[in-house]
Input
Amino acid sequence: DAGITQSPRHKVTETGTPVTLRCHQTENHRYMYWYRQDPGHGLRLIHYSYGVKDTDKGEVSDGYSVSRSKTEDFLLTLESATSSQTSVYFCAISETAGELFFGEGSRLTVL
Amino acid sequence: AQSVSQHNHHVILSEAASLELGCNYSYGGTVNLFWYVQYPGQHLQLLLKYFSGDPLVKGIKGFEAEFIKSKFSFNLRKPSVQWSDTAEYFCAVNVPGNTGKLIFGQGTTLQVKP
Output
């Protein structure tokens, strides 16, 4: 399995609080991605990074921000969590623009 | 914009039955195509991929998929399913050179009855 660690794996928080999810990789891959998985929607891309400090929006980026200060870390921040952001969040990495390797997922519940 | 459509949302089969899951994408140019599987409680794993060449692609665990360019399809097949194939299956597409972003279909839940 690719060396991808997501933290926390489970989190329960309240509406309006900030939340940061961390993705750490040991593969030195260039590309990193944050997806959310919701029933009936499959996986939807939130943000992605194509290098240190190089990030861009995906299809469902509203309410989320990201940062990548080091190759190995990609942070996803919810500035003010809402119930609609209750989801399972997956980090993925890729070296070339092709196959993605996924982390174990982070389950976030916003009450 | 690219999109991926999986026609079967929930499939129930008995062991040894044959499986075919449909996947269609919308993009007129060259694409890379993938099938991922997610076993209960686990992360996504790659089943197979198509970049170029032989349109019939073989993957792990006896799965295969056929790329039919004229139909914009990439259907997944397995001749004889097992109970352990119970999982959610995702078709995905990306445009070569486009930062590797994968666009996923909605997923198909496969339940195999012993």
Remarks:
- The longest strand of chain A covers residues 42-51.
